[in-house]
Design brief:
4-stranded antiparallel beta sheet; 8 strands; alpha+beta; Jelly Rolls
Length: 432
């Protein structure tokens, strides 16, 4: 934002406090939008499709274990892999609990594969539906994205995750039994964990960056995807420490495994959508703060908490603020400029050129938005605005006004109402 060199600059005056208020505003906006969009319901629906995907995977896992067992009869590496899987993943306990079928036929595995493909499509569509709510104005998907991609993305994802998990448990088993040395195993485990972390981050980054129609900046999507990945890792550690499948089996019997997967999936997708909503709120931080400033305490749904959260305007002043002395002309009649202004402090006068000379039409006080007529009507300036004394204004370029009009229905109504009143006063002042 340009600050005339002869006038005091507001840049840097509010930085420390502005950062804290921005974080508070971001957290408040994210929470409000999360509840408003009902993302907890979207998380529940997505976890249901995730469960449908997990069920055929267990059938395929059971068939794979049978196949691996037959190979292990004549293969030492297969025997080591079989032992590693049963020891590290406690497959024996899971089978005894009924979480993994003891026997499955090839036909059942084929049905499981078909179910996996169909549930993959449902899961991807559920995620996309949630992102449509989080990021409005989604574009329509073509046939490939709508049908083909959802059928392959989840199986490929599970395959990569399965390979990473398989490598991890195998390396752990080999290290515990001193096959390759503890030091070598730890290095390989760290690299494998890093690969799994990078894979999840890349998937979330692609979703956060490419699913919204108006793509956020890549670095913003990458940062929020990193936060989501770390949160999912903490959730996984929490489940490992406090939630045990055996406990759910003892409470719910044969349905314990289903309940366990549903709860885990629900919390995982809650985190995924929460970070996505935070990314959207981050991109609209200025718009939301400007809306609250313009509407004051009379906005729809305003509360004391909201008034407290958005009370600090330092960040907006630093970014959009301009200070002008008495006599400075903010808007010149006949100009083609489209910038709108919010009078934060001071007073200004409105003048109109007439046949009899320059005529004063009125004055503007603190808290008034002006100059938006040129933006709305795409016409030249119809009057001049001159500072009566030293004033502080927020200068808003056309793209900011466009975002404000689309983002806030109450503000749009107020701007249109003010514009109508202004036009009415101008008609009364010029009856001819």
């Amino acid at each position: 934002m340009f600050h005339p060199p002869a006038f005091p600059s507001l840049r840097g005056m509010y930085a420390p406090k502005g950062t804290l208020s921005w974080l508070l505003q971001l957290g408040y906006t994210t929470t409000r939008l999360f509840k408003q969009n009902g993302l907890q319901n979207h998380a529940a629906a997505t976890s249901f499709y995730f469960l449908l995907s997990a069920t055929p995977l267990l059938l395929l896992l059971s068939y794979a274990l049978q196949w691996l067992g037959r190979i292990a009869e004549n293969s030492v590496p297969a025997t080591i892999l079989m032992a590693a899987l049963y020891e590290q993943l406690q497959l024996g306990s899971l089978t005894a609990l009924g979480f993994i079928p003891q026997q499955t036929q090839l036909a059942a595995s084929g049905v499981g594969l078909v179910t996996l493909l169909l549930s993959s499509r449902g899961l991807v569509h559920a995620v996309h539906g949630a992102f449509t709510v989080i990021f409005p104005e989604q574009t329509r998907r073509n046939l490939v994205v709508s049908w083909v991609l959802p059928l392959i993305i989840l199986p490929v994802l599970f395959l990569l995750m399965g390979l990473a998990a398989l490598a991890q448990v195998t390396l752990t088993f080999l290290a515990q039994n001193d096959f390759i040395g503890t030091g070598n195993a730890q290095v390989l485990q760290a690299l494998n964990s890093l690969f799994g972390f990078a894979m999840i981050w890349a998937l979330l980054f692609a979703a956060y960056w490419r699913l919204p129609r108006q793509h956020p900046r890549a670095r913003d999507a990458a940062a929020f995807a990193l936060g989501a990945t770390v949160s999912l890792g903490l959730l996984l550690a929490l489940f490992g420490a406090f939630f045990k499948l055996e406990n759910y089996h003892s409470l719910y019997g044969a349905l314990g495994g289903v309940v366990f997967v549903l709860i885990g999936g629900y919390f995982a997708f809650l985190l995924l959508y929460l970070w996505a909503q935070a990314l959207y709120a981050y991109g609209k931080a200025d718009i939301t703060a400007l809306e609250k400033l313009f509407l004051g305490g009379s906005g729809e749904g305003a509360s004391k908490l909201e008034g407290y959260v958005f009370a600090d305007t330092g960040r907006l002043l630093e970014k959009y603020g301009e200070v002008h002395p008495a006599g400075h002309t903010l808007i010149e009649e006949g100009d083609d400029s489209r910038t709108a202004y919010f009078l934060y402090a001071g007073r200004a006068a409105v003048y109109k050129n007439t046949d009899g000379g320059r005529r004063r039409l009125g004055e503007l006080g603190e808290g008034q938005l002006f100059g938006e007529m040129a933006y709305l009507l795409k016409e030249k300036r119809t009057a001049s605005v001159v500072a009566d004394g030293e004033i502080t204004v927020l200068a808003l370029p056309p793209q900011i006004m466009e975002e404000l009009m689309r983002h806030s229905a109450p503000l749009s109504r107020r701007i249109i109402d003010t514009l109508c009143q202004r036009l009415e006063r101008m008609n009364l002042a010029n009856p001819g």
